[in-house]
């Protein structure tokens, strides 16, 4: 069985020491660095914006996986691409013209992702799944770190995997929220390819060891 991609979320990092936190991730077996952007409108929290993403990218040796939890993401895609994003994920719920949003990202030559909130049905992506590089399933309600994992996520992952296989697509399934050593194996067995972990990594006594444990779960 393939090992999952691990994408630690810097939302849980120590921002007073962001350079050393990113260097720790560089030295770890993490595959991507997950960057959560929140605008206080689409989700009830504000995280950070383009200058911080640029600062992270200056030190990062791993691809930046940028997750835009914002309204009208099309207005900011180019700026996050210039800030160093290797993939940009927008929310289904924020994009009335989702196909256009996906094409906008792909035209930059980077991976295009679509995120789904816990209440959003995976079947809604059936018609465009072949266009999407990553589907990010939110396994908590977006906006805050450290939340409890939503158990219905396993069912959504299995349903999405069937849609991907039926379409002959190679879309990756990414899980974000409450991921830890207790649910990682079940998520992978359900069809997940990428695990995002924030608090679980950065609040552990040995973050690099925790990343390695998730990789080998």
Automatic annotation (TrEMBL):
Taxonomic placement: Bacteria, Pseudomonadati, Bacteroidota, Cytophagia, Cytophagales
Assigned EC number: 5.1.3.1
One GO MF term attached to the UniProt entry: D-ribulose-phosphate 3-epimerase activity
Enzyme class label: isomerase
Gene assigned in the entry: rpe
Chain sites annotated for binding substrate: 9, 67, 143-146, 176-178, 198-199
Binding site for a divalent metal cation: 34, 36, 67, 176
Pfam families referenced in this protein's UniProt entry, alphabetically: Ribul_P_3_epim
Any GO CC annotation of this UniProt entry: cytoplasm
Coiled-coil parts of chain: none
Name of the featured protein: Ribulose-phosphate 3-epimerase
Organism: Fulvivirga sediminis
HAMAP family: RPE
């Amino acid at each position: 069985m393939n090992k999952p991609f691990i994408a630690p979320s810097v939302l849980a990092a120590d921002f007073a020491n962001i350079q050393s936190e990113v260097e720790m991730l560089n030295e770890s077996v993490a595959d991507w660095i997950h960057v959560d952007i929140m605008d206080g409108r689409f989700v009830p929290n504000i995280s950070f914006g383009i200058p911080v993403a640029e600062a992270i990218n200056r030190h990062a040796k791993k691809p930046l996986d940028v997750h835009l939890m914002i309204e009208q993401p099309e207005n900011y895609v180019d700026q996050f691409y210039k800030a160093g994003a290797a993939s940009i994920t927008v929310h289904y719920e924020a994009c009335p013209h989702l196909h256009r949003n996906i094409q906008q990202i792909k035209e930059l030559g980077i991976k295009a992702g679509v995120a789904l909130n816990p209440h959003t049905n995976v079947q809604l992506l059936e018609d465009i799944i072949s266009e999407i590089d990553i589907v990010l399933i939110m396994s908590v309600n977006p906006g805050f770190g450290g939340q409890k994992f939503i158990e219905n996520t396993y069912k959504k992952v299995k349903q999405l995997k069937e849609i991907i296989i039926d379409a002959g697509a190679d879309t990756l399934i990414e899980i974000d929220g409450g991921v830890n050593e207790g649910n990682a194996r079940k998520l992978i067995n359900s069809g997940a390819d990428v695990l995002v972990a924030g608090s679980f990594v950065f609040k552990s006594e040995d973050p690099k060891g925790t990343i390695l444990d998730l990789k080998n779960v």
